[in-house]
Design goal:
Elements lengths: L21 E4 L17 E7 L5 H12 L10 E7 L3 E4 L4 E4 L12 E4 L11 H12 L3 E5 L2 H7 L7 E2 L6 H7 L4 E2 L5 E3 L3 E4 L2 H16 L1 H11 L26 H8 L8 H8 L3 H12 L3 H18 L5 H7 L5 H12 L3 H8 L34
Parallel strand pairs: 1-5, 2-3, 2-6, 6-7, 7-11, 8-9
Antiparallel strand pairs: 4-5, 10-11
Helix pairs in contact: 1-5, 5-6
Amino acid sequence: MSPGSSHSPATAPPALADRARVSSAAPAAARADGPGARPSGLHRVVVLVDENSNPFELGCTTEVFGLRRPELGRELYDFRLCAAEPRTLMRDGFFTLTGVAGLEAAETADTLVVPNRPDVAVPRRPEVLDAVRRAHRRGARLVGLCSGAFTLAEAGVLDGRRATAHWQWAEEFRTRFPAVRLEADVLFVDDGDILTAAGSAAALDLGLYIVRRDHGSEVAGAVSRRLVFAAHRDGGQRQFVERPVPDAPDESLAPVLAWAQARLDAPMTVSDLAARAKVSPATLHRRFRAQLGTTPLAWLTAERLALACRLIERGETGVETVARRSGFGSAARLRALMRRETGLSPSDYRRRFGPQPAAEGREGAYGCGPAGSPEGPRAGLVSPAAT
């Protein structure tokens, strides 16, 4: 969500009154009850919408958590929307949300996505903040997208915790909430049972990260393919990329990335990548920073780790085999990296995300254990040692 000027949350500006609006009743699957209700036992994601919330982030959460998944043969989440009012004006009155549950739906959330909106200076509704506090106290996982970090901070649940927000609001956030450990130059932050994302596209990054944390890389890859979106950007990548579109076609990293992804099992160094791109290692490093917001080595390590996770999920049981096929070389190195980046050993990862007997099923798998438990995979951040 890009920052915008403040508007009164109660009514749309008069100049907007005559503009076309969409009265958007929630899809059946998002209603509190009715024929579209999801099967019981699934992890429940509830999005709390407040006045002037941005519909982009609502769309992101719906696309990631709310759609049926016939391509997977099973559902991933029970998705609901709720709001404090039966009729909620969103983003300067361009959209009106109706037909969703009241705040009582937040009481049943395993994951609660909190409101975001551009008018960060306007306090959130007390009843909304109370709903967030109650969810936190009972152990629900909380997710703040863009200015949703302000909602979490106003509710008091971020004190002493790590979080991020849109870079343009970083100074205001630090001034208002000095007890929060703001990381202003990353895409998203996973602090266990509270996760925050920076801006619009980062909402999709964090959503896919949560799917990967809950259901594994293979499922997250399927969701990203349906979105036609990159399956994995590390949370530690910078919010602001200096040159999102290369100045000239021959500076694009796409060819060298595709070349490397096709041979992750082979020995490969940054010098090899630079030689393939026909540039010096220093130039390659600058291009990675400018176009991807990360370093060549960090990217290569993340790609190999994602491949290792997919191999385990597909049923490969030999740790040495997984290490060799993913380019890590040794089981010891694979174990160390998996523990650092996911919080799980290869065997623990296999038990959680590997093939299981049909009778057991994996519906409702929740990558961080019971609602709010921080035991599972940690932040998808590449540590300085990998860069």
